[in-house]
Amino acid sequence: MKTAEQPFRFLTASYITQIGNQKANNLLELADGLEHCSDASIFHHTFQSLGRHHFITEGFSNDFAQWVLAGLNRVELAEQLAALDIRDYVALPDLRRDLRRLVDNYCASRESHASQAAFESFYFCESLQIAVPVASEAWTLEEFRNGLASLSHASLEFHFLVSRLRLHLSTNDFSKWFTDELQLPTLAQRTNRIDIYTNTLQGVQEKLLSLIDRELAA
Amino acid sequence: MSTATAPPRLITLNDYVPLLGAPEIDDLRWLAERLRGRSVEMVNSTAMGGGVAEILNRVIPIMQELGLGIRWEVMTGGNDFFAITKAFHNALHGGAYESRPENFATFLANNEANQSHLNLDAEFVVIHDPQPVALINARRNHSDHWIWRCHIDLSSPNPDVWNFLEPFVTRYDGTLFSSPDFTRQLSIPQYLFYPSIDPLSDKNRDLDAEYVQKVLERFSIDRTRPILTQISRFDYLKDPIGVVKAYQIVKRYMDCQLVLAGGGAVDDPEGGAVLEEVRGVAKDDPDIHILDLPPWSALEINALQRASTVIIQKSLREGFGLTVTEALWKKKPIVASAVGGIPTQVIHKHTGLLAHSIEGTAYQIRLLLSNPAMAQKLAEQGHEHVREHFLITSNVKRYLTLFCHLLGQSAALEK
Q1: I need a labelling partner for B190 at 20 to 30 A (CA). Which of A216, A218, B104, B295 fits?
Q2: Cα angle value A126/B172/B95 (rounded, 5°)
Q3: Confidence at residue B96, expressed as pLDDT on a 0 to 100 scale
Q4: What contacts B133, CB < 8 A, 6 or more positions away?
């Protein structure tokens, strides 16, 4: 069994939400907020929102779509916003641009809806993260499996989802380590393809354990 | 043996493992490692009664078990002081307020008197609610961190009271609010801190089926037919009359019962009036059960929630809405108004259904009663939502995260 030159160090993370002073009460204000909010806020309301709501395995996509549906009852735009797949993006400015484009287009085609007041306000927020090491580290795939089996949801979210921001959205901590340290590109690709939209974090963990078991048995 | 008679014992972190899993509890321990031995002080204005004291009663022992040097101090004050802070409380919720300069003087004098006997030298000082907000005057060491935890809705306060309090608030390092809707534009950071429930408390712990059945029998509620329940004080803002009207619409299509259970009718003159009005609207319908319960009815409320088919929270105005949290934790499908902190908990069509009117409430209830599979899915997702975000352990985790964040900021400034 291959031993890595650098171990995988399992971390866990915790977050608090900082509430910004910017909010939207209609679609025009949402468009303005999307233009001016921080990248961290875009990340919070898309990638991290998916992590916070991982237990919803049908239909939840991002905070913007959910607010347009529940706060404004604009189903068509909500569907369009929800259809943006965060895995298609390798840069947050691109995701921001597409979110903005969808809202702008909708406002342009339905001017009367653009300034309709929402039932509730949308607040642009950011997550503050604290990451701390947990006891285990892995030098081999077997040790990695043992560590993975006892990870919390927060740790999985940190390594599988939030790591994408650090890694320019293209991969995750697990896949990167499989490729860089164990030279297992196929396992890395399969791991990266696990669908966070239709799996809970528990489901992600189980699928990944299953992929590793297959690799170990091969 | 009835669950209701189980003797109390000291709850430890390990007691949460069967509910949350060992990794989640281990995370708290890893996070707390950075804070081991650090001093924390929580200050509020009451040791018993009310949601803040209830939460602190659990947060303090958990943080102690995690190795933090945490204390809880309660400020003192005379009847005049608490009459003024009660008036402030109502004014901050947007109620009328007759401005009297002597009230502000009394408020400040009382805070100053508390400064002399409270020990406010901890590294992290968390001041809860407006009553002790002026204790910030006691801050001497600016390397300490002072946080103001506001449990009330400040979105539309009386300007006289807010203009008096704001200069104190903005001297803190940050504020904690239960919902973004409750915040104001401030020059200091504002963090989202949800309130929480304790899954091991009498209000929320698992109950024997036998005990639940006994409670139903005591109140003559039929378990074989759907039970719609709203748990709340008899208060116009909780709209119990709207709930009865929604039930009456549902009843045209489906056989069901309504339980309205809560307190507040004995010691609150308005509560008595609301109760009478509700009884009037309910007429003599034997399927409407109006239960004016005493404050020590946590187990009965727990049983009623567990026996319910659908839980309703049709408030016209709401704080965070911890009765919603309790219902979701018990895996109950819920129909609730989109007010206060409710939309944070009831994610429409994912963890429950939101409504904006009596007719809408009735429609959503019918939808749930007609679609048990959908109702079950919403309820299960609602339970997970609470498990992840609104339990006492999440509350502790947020405090630990905040303290680590503040320490990190200090370290960065020192470099």
Answers
A1: B104
A2: 90
A3: 84
A4: B111, B127, B148, B165, B168, B169
The phi, psi pair for B225, rounded to 5°, reads -120, 155
Average pLDDT over residues B237-265: 93
Chain B residues lying within 8 Å of A151, measured CB to CB? 23
- Would you call A56 and B347 a contact, using CB atoms and an 8 Å cutoff? yes
Residues of A in Cβ contact (< 8 Å) with B183 = 19, 123
Asked if B183's CB is within 8 angstroms of A14's CB, the reply is no
Which residue of B30, B147, B346 is the best one to mutate when testing the A interface, meaning the one whose CB has the most A CBs within 10 A?
B30
The 8 Å CB, 24+ separation contacts for A140-144 are A140/A1, A140/A2, A140/A3, A140/A4, A141/A1, A141/A2, A141/A182, A141/A184, A141/A212, A141/A215, A141/A216, A142/A1, A142/A216, A144/A8, A144/A177, A144/A212
**Backbone phi, then psi, for A92, in 5-degree steps?**
-65, -35
Q: How many CB pairs under 8 A join A and B?
A: 107
Residue owning tokens 């875009």: A42
Is the CB of A18 less than 8 angstroms away from the CB of B34? no
Concatenated DSSP letters for B206-246? Answer: ---HHHHHHHHHHTT--TTS-EEEEE--S-GGG-HHHHHHH
* pLDDT > 80? residue B415: no
Name the nearest CA neighbour of B331 among B293, B296, B267, B375: B375
Q: Scanning every residue of chain A, which has its alpha carbon at the shortest distance from the alpha carbon of B408?
A: A130
Q: Is A128 on the interface with B (CB under 8 A)?
A: yes
Residue A62 neighbours by CB under 8 Å, 6+ apart:
A45, A46, A49, A50, A81, A82, A84, A86
Name every chain B residue with its beta carbon within 8 A of the beta carbon of A120. Answer: 181, 338, 343
| The two three-digit tokens of residue B232, written as one number | 């709340």
| Contact criterion met (CB < 8 Å) for B401 and A21 | no
pLDDT digits (tens, 9 = 90+) for B12-44: 999 999 999 999 999 999 999 999 999 999 999
Q: Tens of pLDDT along B306-362?
A: 999 999 999 998 888 999 999 999 999 999 998 888 989 999 999 999 999 999 999
Contact B232, B323 (CB under 8 A): yes
In one-letter notation, the amino acid at residue B300 is E
Q: What is the pLDDT of residues B188-228, one digit of tens each?
A: 999 999 999 999 999 999 999 999 999 999 999 999 999 99
- Does the distance separating the beta carbons of B190 and A19 come in below 8 Å? yes
pLDDT of residue B267: 54
Counted residue by residue, chain B has a size of: 415
Q: Measuring CA to CA, which residue among A184, A195, A185 is closest to residue A142?
A: A184
Q: Write the pLDDT tens digit of every residue in B262-272.
A: 876 555 667 88
What is the value of pTM for the model shown?
A: 0.90
The two beta strands, B145-150 and B124-128, are parallel
Contacts of B388 in chain A (CB under 8 A): 52, 55, 153
Classified as helix, coil or strand, B111 is: helix
Measured between beta carbons, the chain B residues lying within 8 angstroms of A119 are 338, 356
Residues in chain B closer than 8 A to A154 (CB atoms) = 24, 27
Selected residues 179-208 of chain A with any CB under 8 Å from a CB in chain B: 200
3-state secondary structure of A130: strand
